[in-house]
Structures are given as C-alpha cells and as structure tokens.
Amino acid sequence: MTAIGLRPATSADSEYCFQLHKAAMGAYVTAIWGWDEQAQRDFHDRVFNPGQWQIITVDGTDAGMLHVEHRPTEIYLARIEIHPAYQGRGIGSRLIRGLLDQARRQGQDLTLDVLVVNHRAQALYRRLGLHEVARHGENNIKIRMSTKAPRPDPTHSS
C-alpha cells in the first residue's frame, strides 16, 4: 500500500506549488483563459499561503498539494492538485474520503468548486457522493459541488 502523507507547506515550496499547478491544471486554465505565464505567476504569488496549504507526499516524495478550509457549517476543499505522474492512483480519492468522513463526524457538508472543463475531477467527485449545487463565476465556469442535498429544480415539476 502506498504511504500518503501530508506536511505543512513552507515558503520554500512556492516554486514547487507553481510548477505543480502548471502541470496539473495548465490545460484547464488554458482552455478557459489561455495560459499567461506572468499572470499565472502573479496569481500564484497572491494566493500561495504556506500557513494553510499542505504538501501531499507519496512514499516520502512530494506529489501534490491540498488546501482545506474549516468553516462554521462546512469543510471547504479549496484546492487539491495531484501531479500528473501520480494521478490515477487513488491518492485524491483517499484524501477526499478522509475529508468526507471528517465532515460526516462533525455533521457538516464537504463543499468544493471545480472548473466546468475538468470533467475528470467532476466524475471523481460524483463517484465520491458529491453533486452539483450551483454554477458561478464569469460565464459559469465553476461548478459548486457538495454533499448537501441538491435543491429541487423549480423548472421541472414531477
């Protein structure tokens, strides 16, 4: 069994996290906005928060990053990125199942946002029991998914 661990991110992890984002999310960012290296670097410099981010390790090697926010009524999975070399091994599933268990124990929902173009992640989240509750962002480019029961669609009557 693969040993999956989490360690606190440090300021020294900034470049690793930027390169990870480029490898894991670059195609999705490009599909929506186009990849502008300087704009992406500026965005990373604004959002990189070693106090809140964790580095995902696999058998002691850095393999991704995780950012979870514990809010009053929910656990919000702000970001999970697995390096493509480690994708498809169940790493993300195991980490998210752990968050689902924690949310259940605390009587909370697990909520996250996923880009509409990231069909692979959406399929994973659905398999794990999350469902779409809203779309938002410019041109509805983000899907909010949650363990919270979806509201009935008033445009469809039964």
Considering the chains and any ligands shown, give keywords for the structure.
7 strands; alpha+beta; 34% helix; 7-stranded mixed β-sheet; GNAT_dom; Aminopeptidase; globular; 158 residues; N-acetyltransferase domain-containing protein; 4 helices; MshD_Acetyltransferase
In short:
By secondary structure, the chain is an alpha+beta fold. It contains four helices and seven strands, in the order βααβββαβαββ. It has helices spanning 14-32, 37-47, 91-105, 119-127, and strands spanning 4-8, 53-58, 61-70, 74-82, 109-115, 131-136, 142-146.
What would you note in describing this structure?
The protein is α+β, with helices and mostly antiparallel strands. It has one domain: Aminopeptidase, CATH 3.40.630. It contains four helices and seven strands, in the order E-H-H-E-E-E-H-E-H-E-E. A seven-stranded mixed sheet has the order 1-2-3-4-5-7-6. Strand 3 and strand 4 form a beta hairpin. It is globular. The N and C termini lie far apart (47 Å). The mean pLDDT is 94.
